[in-house]
């Protein structure tokens, strides 16, 4: 996404409404000692679960670029079907399209409660170096 926005080759799809659970790398480093000590299985992610549009706007702002153009879903779907025919070299196919347009979020409540952890807000702390 960063490279695509930097070069002007990134297109947002259907307004970038899909939400994704994300996590700052600093949170991983901070959590490792507690995870090693306590053990267990935890979902670790940001509380805000930003939309693609929020991430796109944040990245564009930090790169001093315009927010990416959003194309309608039907156009992206047509491009994805063509990508299915082209094969591996296609920039988009049906699988990639579904990953971009479907929300995938998780609850971090167990990790916050059991590990006494509070995640950094990605939209407030993400910086492109």
Question: How would you describe this structure to a colleague?
Answer:
It comes from bioreactor metagenome. This is NAD-dependent epimerase/dehydratase domain-containing protein. Strands 1-2 form a two-stranded parallel sheet. It is mainly alpha-helical and 129 residues long. It has seven helices and two strands. 17% of the residues are buried. 50% of the residues lie in helices and 3% in strands. The protein has helices at 2-7, 25-38, 52-62, 73-86, 94-101, 109-115, 122-125, and strands at residues 12-13, 70-71. α4 packs antiparallel against α5 (94-101).
Keywords, separated by commas or semicolons:
single chain, 129 residues, mainly alpha, Rossmann fold, two-stranded parallel sheet, NAD-dependent epimerase/dehydratase domain-containing protein, NAD(P)-bd_dom_sf
| CATH fold node name | Rossmann fold
Shape descriptor? globular
Name of the CATH first level: Alpha Beta
**Domains, number:** 1
DSSP summary: helix tally: 7
Largest sheet: 2 strands, parallel
Approximately how much beta-strand content do the residues carry? under 5%
Number of strands: 2
Low-confidence segments, ≥5 residues, pLDDT <50?
none
Q: What's the rounded overall pLDDT mean? A: 95
Radius of gyration: 17 Å
Spatial sequence of strands, sheet with the most strands: 1-2
Assign the CATH architecture: 3-Layer(aba) Sandwich
Helical fraction equals: 40-55%
Q: What is the CATH superfamily classification?
A: NAD(P)-binding Rossmann-like Domain
* Helix and strand element order: HEHHEHHHH
The class by helix and strand makeup works out as mainly alpha
Q: What is the terminal-to-terminal distance?
A: 15 Å
